[in-house]
Design brief:
single chain; 27 strands
Length: about 675
């Protein structure tokens, strides 16, 4: 592997052309000289921060401000440490787990975010504090050390950090995507990242004249690859709106670690642009996006885009060819890239020219191509194994692939997404690929669901515009493409597939399918004769019965509670309507008690909190009927009964609302997890 640190490649370009633009984030432009100076100042602060571990430790960067996140990453490297990025909108429990997993020695964040990431008593370096005095700064040579092997992360048993680069130490700790399980930390050393940069350079050919747009979030493997590809080649890194508020934030000069504070007006302006508008305005020549983002990106006129890199999820050959046809630049390239965190995202690349000839059904095939220079890819018992750039042990990916003799690697799904139905294994990717080729299907995900009716294959389908196919015709279209026993038992129509913060399909967020036999039409409109799930029917019946019981039992339980004698109109009628509303709310709450929890569980979040939230919703609905009747019979100065009412109903209702609010917030945060 090449010697030296990864950030030294960046510093080489600082010395060659300090005036060249290095980073564009909203209205902010930082030259190579300015970016390096900002990172150097922060590295100097790290060198004198009390409680910070010796060089070679891992420091966590947790900020939602750009370009501070890039400055912090470079500063950590300059100070001789390794960085890991944690999104501050990650659920707090997951933040704690990740900090412990990487054994973080400190957290670099902003004051406004520090409370949310303050876990374990670690030192906090606030990015919005003043720089250290001139006489306490370390020299560039001292700040640029990367030889701290004493604290380097190495492989460990029991779920610790894997990877590392031996004596040269870790440069970053990346987390696996966690699409089907808990995200796992992987340490990547300077040698690995330098080898990855050399491999990318050999295929992509980036020059200082290029402007590279990335839509990845800073905590992802894709983002680390993007900044290395751009800043270690002397090119300009353009941060796009795909990173949500991080990349859409606007900046003005003067203040933070990167030399700026957030500009609210600029933030809204930047957020209003589409990726295509941003690429056009910034004269982007290279863009890195996922398949969905690629389609939106090329919808606009991009006269200078010469290279489109598509990764993160499989892209069909048909989709790749369509993208190629939309690029206006002669000889513009569309490349599919593939790689896991264990190989720093540098695994294989594909473009159609690697094929020996035309493919009969390009919509049903997705290729990963050939290894980057210095890498290796092989298929062992159907599973893809990747060897990192520069050599090392091959690592399993969990992805299924196949390769014809001397041909490109073809993606064939994931092992952990296969399901067992009636004792046999069902290849869900094969069904998904067949559905993707259906003219009335825009996207599809196939899973196996199990409930009290038994096991079944469920297809979640996003229909194409104007589609009118029914389940029967869809199944007929799959005949001959998949085994008869693998035809979907149930088809659920969705407006869009749920996606996580990284833009990948979030299978855990797919809605609960209706009960067995409740087939749905594929068309955009109409229900297609779908039946109502059984638990909803039972809940509705219970609700109706409870509602009528409340009307019948009010005067039995609280004699005289509904007596409106002496109340003048129209107030008498309004109070009568109030009694009806209370009874209806009681009935709805009773029905929700039986039927509501299943949908809440499907939305995700901690099980105990979900149960409490379910009961809280029930209480918020049913409590008004008994509470109001007790109040009507309580004398104004009956302080004992008044206090009992307040603490039996009013206070619990407030607590119930707080529990629901907490559940909603935790769910919202969980939806952003990578």
């Amino acid at each position: 592997m090449a010697g030296g640190s990864i950030h030294q490649l960046f510093e080489d370009h600082v010395r060659r052309a300090p005036e060249r633009t290095a980073l564009i984030a909203g209205p902010t432009r930082l030259t190579y000289g300015e970016l390096d100076a900002a990172a150097g100042r922060l590295a100097a602060r790290l060198s004198v921060t009390e409680g910070l571990p010796p060089s070679g430790a891992t420091l966590a960067v947790a900020t939602d401000r750009v370009p501070d996140v890039v400055v912090a990453m470079l500063a950590v490297l300059k100070a001789g440490h390794a960085y890991t990025v944690i999104a501050p909108d990650t659920p707090r429990r997951e933040i704690r787990r990740r900090l412990e997993a990487v054994r973080a020695g400190a957290v670099l964040t902003h004051r406004a975010l520090s409370a949310g990431v303050d876990e374990g008593g670690r030192p906090a370096v606030l990015l919005d504090e003043e720089d250290v005095p001139e006489d306490r700064r370390v020299s560039p040579d001292g700040a640029g050390r990367a030889d701290g092997a004493s604290g380097a992360l190495t492989s460990s048993a029991g779920g610790g950090v894997s990877g590392g680069d031996g004596a040269q130490g870790a440069a970053t700790v990346l987390f696996t995507a966690g699409t089907t399980g808990e995200a796992r930390p992987v340490a990547c050393g300077h040698g690995l990242l330098r080898a990855a940069h050399a491999a990318w350079a050999g295929v992509l050919g980036l020059t200082p004249e290029d402007r590279l747009l990335t839509l990845a979030r800073p905590e992802t493997t894709e983002f680390t690859g993007a900044w290395i590809r751009a800043l270690c080649s002397g090119a300009t890194l353009v941060l796009g709106e795909g990173a949500r508020e991080v990349a859409a934030a606007g900046w003005t000069d003067g203040g933070s670690a990167a030399g700026g504070q957030p500009d609210v007006a600029g933030s809204h302006a930047a957020g209003s642009h589409t990726a295509g508008h941003l690429a056009l305005a910034e004269r982007v020549t290279v863009a890195e996006v996922g398949p969905a983002g690629a389609v939106r990106l090329v919808e606009g006129e991009l006269p200078e885009l010469r290279l489109l890199l598509v990764g993160g999820e499989p892209l069909s050959l048909g989709g790749q060819l369509r993208l190629q046809g939309l690029l206006p630049v002669p000889d513009a390239r569309v490349l599919v890239t593939y790689g896991t965190a264990e190989v720093a995202g540098c695994g294989t690349w594909f473009e159609p020219g690697q094929l020996a000839g035309p493919v009969a059904r390009p919509e049903r095939a997705a290729y990963l191509g050939v290894p980057f220079p210095g890498c290796a890819a092989e298929v062992r018992k159907g599973e893809i194994w990747l060897t990192p750039p520069g050599g090392g042990d091959a690592v399993p990916t969990g992805d299924v692939g196949r390769r014809e003799t001397d041909g490109p690697l073809e993606f064939r799904g994931r092992l952990d997404q296969r399901v067992t139905i009636a004792g046999r294994t069902v290849d869900t990717y094969r069904i998904e690929a067949a559905l993707a080729g259906h003219p009335e299907v825009e996207a599809a995900v196939v899973t196996g669901e199990q409930d009290r009716t038994g096991q079944r294959i469920v297809a979640f389908v996003v229909p194409a515009e104007g589609a009118t196919s029914t389940v029967a015709s869809l199944r007929a279209g799959l005949s001959g493409l998949v085994p008869a026993g693998d035809l979907p038992d149930l088809v659920v129509r969705l407006r869009a597939l749920p996606r996580n913060a990284a833009g990948k399909v979030d299978r855990g967020a797919l809605p609960l399918p209706p009960s067995a036999g409740a087939h749905r039409a594929v068309g955009k409109g109409g229900s297609g004769g779908e039946s109502v799930p059984g638990h909803l029917v039972v809940g509705a019946l219970v609700g109706v019965v409870a509602c009528f019981l409340s009307f019948a039992l009010t005067d039995v339980l609280w004699p005289g509670a509904t007596d409106r004698t002496g109340i003048p109109g129209p107030w008498s009628g309004l109070f009568g309507l109030l009694y009806v509303v209370e009874g209806v709310a009681f009935g709805v709450g009773a029905g929700f008690l039986l039927a509501g929890r299943r949908g809440m569980v499907r939305r995700g979040g901690p099980g105990t909190l979900t149960t409490l939230a379910h009961l809280a919703v029930v209480w918020l609905l049913v409590a008004w009927w008994p509470q109001d009747n007790f109040y009507r019979l309580a004398a104004k100065r009956d302080w004992e009964r008044q206090a009992a009412l307040v603490y039996s109903f009013n206070v619990p209702l407030m607590l119930a609302a707080a529990i629901v609010a907490l559940w909603a917030v935790r769910r919202s945060a969980g939806a952003a997890k990578t």
